[in-house]
Description:
Elements: H1 2-8, H2 16-22, H3 27-39, H4 42-54, H5 61-83, H6 89-109, H7 114-131, H8 133-152, H9 156-168, H10 170-173, H11 177-190, H12 194-213, H13 224-230, H14 234-253, H15 257-273, H16 275-279, H17 282-295, H18 298-308, H19 312-317, H20 321-345, H21 350-355, H22 369-385, H23 390-403, H24 408-424, H25 426-429, H26 433-443, H27 449-464, H28 468-471, H29 473-482, H30 488-503, H31 512-521, H32 537-557, H33 562-577, H34 583-603, H35 607-625, H36 635-649, H37 657-669, E1 674-678, H38 681-689, E2 693-694, E3 700-706, E4 710-716, H39 718-738, H40 746-753, H41 763-782, H42 787-806, H43 811-833, H44 845-873, H45 883-914, H46 919-930, H47 940-956, H48 958-976, H49 986-1002, H50 1012-1023, H51 1033-1047, H52 1062-1072, H53 1079-1095, H54 1101-1116, H55 1124-1140, H56 1143-1151, H57 1155-1168
Antiparallel strand pairs: 1-4, 2-3, 3-4
Amino acid sequence: QAQVSRTCGMSKIVTLDLLEALLSPLAAPRQEAECHLQSLSVEDRVKGLTSILLENATKEARHVTLVAVLLRRNIILIAGNVLSKTLDQSTAENLLKELVSPLLEIFGASSFARRQFAHCLAEVCSSLSILNQAQCDVAVRVIMEKIAPACSAADPFSLHCLATMCERSPASMVCYLDSILSLIANANNTANDNSSIESLLEAFVSVAVASERKGAAIDLGVNLQKQNELKIDPQSQSARMGKLLLSLFPKLERLDDETKTRCLQSLVYAAGASPSLLAGDLSVFASLVQFCIQTNTLLSLEVLVSLCSVPDIPHKLFPTADGMQIRSMLCQHVLSQCANFMVTSLDEEIIEWAQEPATLFEDTAEEDEDFSYATTLFGRFVIILGNGSLPVLLPLVESFMAAGKNDWRQFCVALTIMQTCLYVGPIMFAPHVTVALEAALELTKTDHARLQHQALLLLGALCESDNAEIGGQRILEAAVRLVPSPCSKVSTTASAVIISYCRAEATVEPYCREVLQVLVTGPLSQQVIYENNQVNYGALASKVRAIGAVACLAEACAEGFRPFYEAIMPGLLGTVQTHGSFEEGAQLRGGAMEAITIIGQAIGHSDLYARDAEELMRIALITLKSPTDNQDIPLDQVLSSCARVATVMEEQFTPFLPEILPHILERINAVVDISYEEGNEAGLESTKRGDLEMDDDGNNAMTILIPGKGFTKISIDMSKIEEKSQACRATYELAFALGASFAPYAEEFISALKPLISYAYSPDVRSTACQALAAVFESACKGRVPLVAQTLPALSNAICEQIASEGDDDMEALYAICESLSDILCSAYEQLSSNDRSVLSNFTIDNGTVIVKLLMGLISSCLERRRVLFETLEGVHGALAGEDEQNELKQKLDMEEEVLNPLINSVGYVLKFLKQDFLPLFETHVAPILGTFLKGSSDTRAQFAAVALFDDCIEHCGESAAQRFGSILAEGVLVGINPSTNGGDDDVLRTSIYGIAQIARYCPPNTLEPYAQSILLNLMALGKVPKDENQDVHLIENAVSALAALVLIGPAPLGHMKFLNRDDLIATFLKQLPFREDEDEAKICHAGFCDLVIQGDAKDTSEIMRIVGEILVHLEDGEELACQETKVQMTKILFEMQQKVQPHVLQETFGSLSEEAQKLVNVNLQQYAPNPVVTP
């Protein structure tokens, strides 16, 4: 009470009573003191805290430490107050300048809290750098002059101060680079104890990291001009730093284990943030490798793997003569060290391990963390060393397999090594897959649970690396044999192998009955609840995983699963219908519900499934109406299951929407809890290391240092973010499955989803929201909802802007967002194609300009990334580690292609929207970027993109476009149809041929004359290829269409060529009709066919009747292969044939048609003439 009363009457100053209250174990005085401190201005707090130190009001360590901590926090806030206009800048600058001398005095005189005061000095400089760089330079000079002697003497706190100054004010510290290196060199001569050596390394790393962040060897934040003024030579400074680091290694070897661990953590940080320091000099790198190998800890190995992950190390250094020696050293020592750590970190208590229940989620057990850590490092080294690791890997596996008879852990590690190689080096390890297979199969037969488990993991890896067919039935038999294992870890892993086997698309249907029988009589029949109402967690995990295996079997067998449907479904439905109070049971019921819906998708719509789907939806609706905290099935599984039912039931699902959609909307609109609170330095260091922080509520958290605000801990409720993603996925599935039936809900969902396009906290939310928007927009177009015209410009602009800011670190998310934009524009174009131009009523040239500028910038960036990847593949940037790295680069190219295609498509749709109004955009933004690729490129996808958009420009942008770009495209298509210049890319060939047709139709007649013979001979050769299932039908139809456009129908600009046999060309044209691959081309060519018949050029009665009959059949099936005028012309042709062709010829021709074609011919004739006489 006395303490409380003393704090009640506080004036606006900082007193010892206030400090005591802040340190009080009692909540009431502590909270009152905190409120009082917050009521003071930042200026008053800083002055009050400083004065209490200068007046020597206290000598107690706890008081001084508290003051130092509070002072640092408030110094950080000064710049923020200026930026927020709550503090005058000149006042703030004076306040900060006036702190330097007293802080230096306290820092030098204090016997404790010196580390905290060093931070205060660094924050003064950092805040000044925000407000006035010149004043920061002055402060740095004063501080450096003061701490220099102590740094030279290896005073740990002064070296720490130097380190924090480099970190917080790099731009000013560059002026003292020579001095800093001299100080470190002097300190290195005198540092002998753990503390001084550790601080010396910390200072050294801080200098190096600051330099690396500025992009040059020793550029700590000043521009090149300032470096020249200061006569800084980056190369010489880098060499000097390398020599200094070399001299540090002997000292590091003498440290105690705890200090050495912290120093290794600094080196891990330096390896990632400053690779030029540790690897810029070969002798430094070699010494570091030697030091880490001799240190022989997991952390020292992490230093090496972090450094060797920098691309220049394996690509440029290892191929050199000296580099190969280092690489050999790594192969010989590091891989075996990792493997030995794997052995020694395995828990030998096998009985205890086997008795522990499996878990629903794959969490690494605490006792296996070092094993997992060592395995991860091993895999990363194999990636880096590539094929060079193989001569070490194989003997390593052999030695462990030989030693396994006496120590099961050796077997376990051998299996793990092979499993790791399958994941990180599948091509390299491919010749040895059979060895891995036989070892795994053999060890599944032991009675050792841990070995069974590890062997099954290897079998799963074989399936996941496309090797399932090699083991075939034997893999499945091994998994099935262990599914009933009393060890739940083995049982769940066996079911997981079955899942992997099914997903590998290996042959499974012949074994389905046997596998199901084992699953049903084994884990699916286990009791999850004991008689005493305790949960059997092992049985629960086994059952959930077995249910997943059943679902995957159904997916793999598809309709072949129908014979087992009635045997398996009652048990799954019974599981869903079972109510329970334990939380994990909800996962079991949710898994069963999802399995039912997956099985439904596999076997397709049937009366049998419709009955069960109705019961499932009844349960789902009951769950949805229950309070969130009292639901028997997790809501995300309910919603995803409902979406799957919708994909099977389609429009029959519509009545359920009013009860399901509000729950989806609730999750989409839910506000995610994101909290900001005061952080600390430990949290910042943890975030830098990449460690996952958790707040008190179990949410993910990270700590950052915000200039002017200080340490800030940000906590995000990731479960709510995941729920948003799931709701978006459910929306996509429902809208996609229901089409126009979803349209009445489109407006509400578009309004809810649109803000998520730029959702800052999750790329998964952004991508799934965009995909959902595309599906909802398509449903709105199909339902002819007026809002599509209103939303088209806003949605396309918003998605374009997000793509531009998305970055390329998450390519899957980037692809999904790009694809959604293309899908939205495609839906609008399809509505436009059905003669409904209302969709573009709000889409202006300005909208198109914004979109195209953004898209072409993105296309340019994508092509640049692809250029670098091609160069890397070709060895321009150094040698590759082997085929696996080559394959990884090719996969990246494929991913970039997936991003590029929708971007190109989107530009194409905007072009088709704007027609001739697009021409200025094409001239300004498209042609300059893509025109150069028309001449050919090593990147054939760029060549394809160029030809495709130039094709569209000629076709859609009017006469001026044809005049302007026809000859340019003509040269491009000549390159595109030539196998020696199109890279063998069928897409380039196909789109080039399509371009020829457009030039023939829209450009001046002489555009293609210079290349006539070459083009016509190519097209005639393709036109004679039969359209069977082994050929590229689209390519053949494009070629014949282009040939017809050039010489037979329409303007036919090359029809006068004397070397052509017109009758032969007409026969070729008729033989390939009808066209079906491209409906637009089909309509043009089928209209041209009718013209040829009516003109008397096409005379083959049998072919004419066949073509007309087949076109009518396809039209009846809903294919838009002819316009109304062509349909009328075909009926006239039939009527003319009826009138003029001899009856016996007509009957023979008619009789060769299919029954359906005969029927449709008669129907059409009936419409044209009431009494048709054509009969078989």
